[in-house]
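Ticket closed. Logging final result for 6-phosphogluconate dehydrogenase, decarboxylating.
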Amino acid sequence: TSAQIGVTGLAVMGRNLARNFARNGYTVAVHNRTVSRTKSLVEEFGHEGDFVAAETAEEFVAALERPRRLVVMVKAGRPTDAVIEEFAPLLEPGDMIIDGGNAHFADTRRRERELRERGIHFVGTGISGGEEGALHGPSIMPGGSKESYESLGPMLEKISAKAADGAPCVTHVGPDGAGHFVKMVHNGIEYADMQLIGEAYQLLRDVAGYTPAQIADIFRTWNTGRLDSYLIEITAEVLSHVDEASGKPFVDVVVDQAEQKGTGRWTVQIALDLGVPVSGIAEAVFARSLSGHAALRDASRGLSGPKPSALGESEAAAFADRVEQALYASKIVSYTQGFHEIAAGSEEYDWDIDLGAVSAIWRGGCIIRAAFLDRIRAAYDAQPGLPSLLSDETFAREIAEAQDDWREVLVAATRQGVPTPGFAAALAYYDALRAPRLPAALTQGQRDFFGAHTYRRVDRDGSFHTLWGGDRSEVSE
Ligand code: NBP
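Final structure:
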């Protein structure tokens, strides 16, 4: 029997992905560096479909029909290169290596280039949805050549999540590293979403005075509206969970130091390189980092500031409604920033990414799946060249309606000393974009003063310098 697809790297993700292919009727060759994983997969789940267990790389490659489709699900970084070095010599022109790990897109570009020279298609593929997604249907973001997608697309469409309208959550994102780039920004947006939800929780707790169980109910209500999303849904689950050992809310017994694996940080690093202001995502990454500085936080607990005082019952309910507005408006801004980064990456690397298609494949399977993404897609469908999501009429109107509450929430947060870097960064971005004039003019003046860096004028073309140390006359450069 020859297998239509092979998966090497059978930790949680690879094993579930292999099972997903098998459950969809494909014959799947399975391989792992440590053979026991391969054996246990076939022992435990062999009844789910057709698996071909391979102990060696040679056996694995031999089990695959041609052109070969070989999915690599190992730890990103060095292990991915090691696996490529192991398999590439065994492959033939036209074969495909699909890297489903969380690779950095620059690594994917390098690998794609190297393998292309050897006639092998390298398909860097973002896969989102965690282990459940891998098994039941992830959102899949493949890069690589068009040709490879023709061969792979139908299989990926079959195993992917389906959006509410039945559309598979996979599209050919673009050449070489486009898929991993989009997956990276997806994760950055996920960080921002989580930070904004965290801030909403903190405000409902400290300013409105609600208990975690009450806040869970508020989130459940929000989840029936425009904020309907996986992250809001699981937030309610986490908040209503009670720790068995202590009887306390679970959220009160967890150490408040957030960890990260790196894709959020990459999103910000690359945004800095591309010159794209993703301030909301950056604040989310920094907030996690700040939370982890235990010694710094311990040393700072005595610093002065207001103590939040809880509102009365009816005021609290009204405040919760405002927080919903603030959360929604901030969310629009963080998606605006994330899509700006994708557009900038697409421009820089000539990927020609369809932003509407990207929002469409995030509607199911992935961590940021949300009703909201339908509206983003509608915005790009209506106007493919939309310069910014904020220029979409619907989003602009929604922000206009939300903004009084958004500002009030930030006033309350500031007065009561509740940190809301995500909400604040989002509002600052919004206000900066709509400002008729920015203090950047003053910055240019300062730069010209100390470094003769020159400036442009509003009323004439060219670049100019003022002789600051002399008679302050202006010279044209
Ligand atoms: P891990 O990231 O924990 O990787 C473990 C796998 O890598 C095992 O199969 C291991 O083989 C293999 N491996 C390593 Br480590 N070094 C190797 C080498 N030098 N040669 C060959 N194989 C090697 O697994 P995971 O959590 O299933 O994630 C797989 C990929 O999917 C990662 O890139 C991850 O970032 C990405 N991802 C994960 C999630 C998630 O929710 N976990 C979601 C989306 C994407 P061994 O058994 O012999 O040690």
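The chain has a mean pLDDT of 97. No further action required.
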